[in-house]
Design a protein that fits this description.
Elements (H helix, E strand, L loop, with lengths): L1 E5 L2 E3 L5 E8 L7 E7 L6 E6 L6 E3 L7 E6 L4 E6 L8 E8 L8 E5 L2
Parallel strand pairs: 2-10
Antiparallel strand pairs: 1-3, 3-8, 4-5, 4-9, 5-6, 7-8, 9-10
Length: about 110
């Protein structure tokens, strides 16, 4: 069972990034998938989730209207499109499922001018 995040980087405020998470070792399409983030000195927080039918999504208030979660069950991949990025979005971003698996290595997102 493995979750591998990618797509992070350094971006200026107002910019965009698209994160990807490749899952393996379980029946991807049967699970709700989530994106989470952990900023320095803070606890990990849930950012977005997408139910297994792909038609239902939910977002933290802090990212609503700026981030979009999506999934491709044929590719066992979940995505997070992040627009209008702010410095407070700086964090390590992790994907996971519900119920939780062991956390992957995450991907660093840094928003700075």
């Amino acid at each position: 069972v493995q979750l591998v995040e990618s797509g992070g980087g350094l971006v200026q405020p107002g910019g965009s990034l698209r994160l990807s998470c490749a899952a393996s070792g379980f029946t991807f399409g049967s699970y709700t998938m989530t994106w989470n983030r952990q900023a320095p000195g803070k606890e990990r927080e849930l950012v977005a989730r997408i139910f297994r039918d792909s038609g239902s999504t939910a977002y933290a208030d802090s990212v609503k209207g700026r981030f979009t979660i999506s999934r491709d069950n044929a590719k066992n991949t979940v995505y997070l499109q992040m627009n209008s990025l702010k410095p407070e979005d700086t964090a390590v971003y992790y994907c996971n499922r519900i119920p939780l698996l062991s956390w992957g290595q995450g991907t660093q997102v840094t928003v700075s001018s």
